[in-house]
Specification:
Largest sheet of chain A: 2 strands, antiparallel
Structural class of chain A: mainly alpha
Number of helices of chain B: 19
Distance between the termini of chain A: 17 Å
Strand content of chain B: under 5%
Number of strands of chain B: 2
Number of helices of chain A: 11
Distance between the termini of chain B: 80 Å
Order of helices and strands of chain B: HHEEHHHHHHHHHHHHHHHHH
Helix content of chain A: over 70%
Helix content of chain B: 40-55%
Shape of chain A: elongated
Oligomer: heterodimer
Radius of gyration of chain B: 30 Å
Strand order of the largest sheet of chain B: 1-2
Strand order of the largest sheet of chain A: 1-2
Strand content of chain A: under 5%
Structural class of chain B: mainly alpha
Largest sheet of chain B: 2 strands, antiparallel
Number of strands of chain A: 2
């Protein structure tokens, strides 16, 4: 079998960013959920594995610092990097995403044969990106307040601090669900071939996948002469 | 426990020895002793210069649990009367109160806990001020603890402890617990409810019921849901809300730098939250929280401390929590629905 032609989708910088992001989020989720569900046996075991309640907190904050760094790097790239800026503009939601999503829904339900004409990012991919931006944003904001309670309470009443804690707990669970259930299912696990999508590691996707999922990008790349059809 | 065993053993030997002595002599009648000790003015000067009354009230003795005992049953070192100034030793209660004693004197395992208590250890080390049995239970006036005349009765036990722990008692007496007892609410906490009875240990001892990390198990003995406190209309949700708070979780997992009940509410001086002198009165919250959280201000008092997000009375906290709960559930359902839809499409495509 002839090896399938592949195209580079994610740069090395993007892949490293993604690895740091999900590593920190996994650590944050493990240490955070252990605290939230502390009555649960699994959570208690996790806390014990994390070296007790105080070390758990330290690990959580170290991971939070790593997350902060990668988020800061991300925004610096968007603001000052040429590629970062281009990628950001490609993921900003646009009116045609709604039309495309409608087509996708009809197609998925088996009503229509027409496929959505997605460019670089599909509606689902954009949704996942922005869900993470919103979710992680809230987590960082509330997390900071909880990290420095004395400073926070210098200006915030107790009840607002209680709300901060509740938001942090629930929002963390939401981010966990969206990423570890949905994103993992949507992006990384494939029921076609191959079973796992290794693009996060190699940065490459098969040309056929580009044609199928990102037809508009494929045509654009052809037009721009960056890609030659075989 | 080898130490308490030897304690019993010594008692056993002493008891059998005294039985030998008593069998050769007539049991000395109470009346014979009261010829001298029935006189109110009978006193002696201790080597320390302290004047001690040697008067024994016959009525007191006859109304005690030991009414049927003769003086020499306890004062076994008195073998002839008058004992002519021969120094009479302090009575050793374990002469009779040991397990399996023939006299049928009560002996429970908890009595032996005394040997390991802060009092027992001090007494064994030779501290003359450390209490032995009769210092709490009374010498001649030993009564059952349910008897209001007993120093061990719930209504008076704190006063009994206060004979030595005067400062603590004077603070406790004015606390919500002390006042309730004075009002006749005998369910209210007395010294022994928190500190234990024979087993009292130093608060610095990790085995103590009032050790920092054990406090959250001690207060709920009454303040847990459906505990004694609820009988008096006192809210009992605080235990659960504490356990779910950062402080509670920290304590549960062995942190020693977090607050337990007593850190905020006080120890002997616990008062109702609306009492101006209470450490948890709104005006005193900044000072109380400030013990640990430097720079604590009035913001610490804005909102409930024992907050339950599941209860409507928590206001905004309840609604935010309610919103997020349903958001989480609907997002979860949405994600599952999407995945199901996606899987069915894939299945259709594969068939084709």
């Amino acid at each position: 079998m002839r090896p399938e032609k592949e195209v580079l989708r994610f740069s090395r910088g993007q892949r490293i960013q993604h690895i740091i992001l999900f590593s920190s989020l996994i650590v944050l989720a493990l240490t955070g959920l252990a605290l939230r569900f502390h009555e649960n046996l699994v959570a208690r075991t996790l806390i014990a594995l994390e070296g007790g309640i105080e070390l758990r907190g330290l690990i959580h904050r170290i991971a939070a610092a790593a997350l902060l760094l990668v988020v800061a790097g991300h925004f610096i790239q968007i603001l000052f990097g040429e590629r970062g800026h281009r990628e950001f503009m490609a993921i900003v939601p646009r009116a045609k995403d709604i039309r495309n999503s409608w087509t996708a829904l009809k197609h998925n339900m088996g009503i229509s044969k027409e496929r959505p004409m997605y460019d670089r990012y599909t509606g689902l991919q954009k949704l996942q990106y922005w869900a993470v931006v919103l979710g992680v944003g809230i987590m960082i904001l509330t997390g900071f307040l909880l990290w420095f309670p004395s400073q926070a309470m210098a200006v915030m009443p107790k009840w607002l601090m209680d709300i901060t804690l509740i938001v942090h707990g629930y929002q963390g669970t939401l981010v966990f669900m969206v990423l570890f259930l949905w994103h993992l299912y949507n992006v990384h696990v494939r029921f076609g071939r191959p079973f796992f999508n290794w693009a996060w590691l190699t940065g490459r996707i098969p040309l056929s996948e580009l044609k199928e999922i990102h037809p508009a990008e494929y045509e654009r790349l052809l037009r721009q002469g960056e890609l030659r059809d075989e | 426990m080898p130490r308490s065993f030897s304690f019993l053993f010594v008692g056993l030997v002493a008891a059998s020895l005294s039985l030998l002595v008593l069998s050769s002599k007539d049991i000395l009648a109470l009346t014979k002793c009261t010829i001298c000790h029935g006189k109110r003015e009978l006193r002696k000067i201790q080597p320390t210069g302290k004047l001690v009354s040697l008067y024994v009230d016959e009525w007191v003795l006859q109304n005690s649990v030991h009414a049927k005992q003769a003086c020499t049953d306890c004062h076994s070192d008195v073998v002839e009367i008058p004992h002519k100034g021969k120094l009479v030793e302090k009575v050793n209660c374990t002469r009779c109160h040991y397990r399996g004693n023939p006299a049928g004197a009560p002996q429970m395992v908890k009595y032996t806990e005394y040997a390991e208590s802060v009092h027992g250890i001090a007494a064994r080390a030779g501290n003359q001020k450390a209490p032995v049995c009769q210092d709490c239970h009374g010498a001649h006036n030993v009564r059952k603890h349910a008897d209001p005349q007993s120093g061990m009765w719930r209504g008076t036990i704190s006063e009994t402890c206060g004979r030595c722990h005067l400062e603590v008692y004077s603070v406790y007496r004015e606390s919500i617990h002390g006042r309730a007892v004075k009002e006749g609410k005998l369910d209210s906490a007395v010294c022994t409810d928190c500190h234990g009875e024979h087993s009292i240990k130093s608060p610095e001892n990790p085995e103590s019921t009032v050790y920092l990390t054990n406090i959250p198990q001690t207060c709920p003995k009454c303040h847990a849901p459906k505990g004694i406190a609820s009988k008096y209309g006192i809210k009992t949700g605080q235990v659960k809300t504490f356990e779910d708070s950062f402080h509670g979780i920290g304590i549960k997992f062995g942190m020693k730098t977090v607050a337990s009940c007593a850190s905020c509410h006080g120890v002997h001086d616990i008062r109702a939250a609306d009492d101006l002198r209470s450490t948890v009165h709104i005006k005193n919250i900044p000072t109380t929280c400030g013990k640990c959280h430097s720079g604590a201000n009035i913001n610490y008092a804005k909102g409930r401390i024992h907050v339950d997000p599941k209860k409507k009375e928590s206001g905004a906290i309840f609604y935010v929590s309610f919103f997020f709960k349903w958001l989480t559930i609907s997002v979860m359902l949405g994600l599952l629905a999407h995945m199901a839809l996606d899987l069915s499409r894939r299945a259709r495509e594969r068939k084709r």
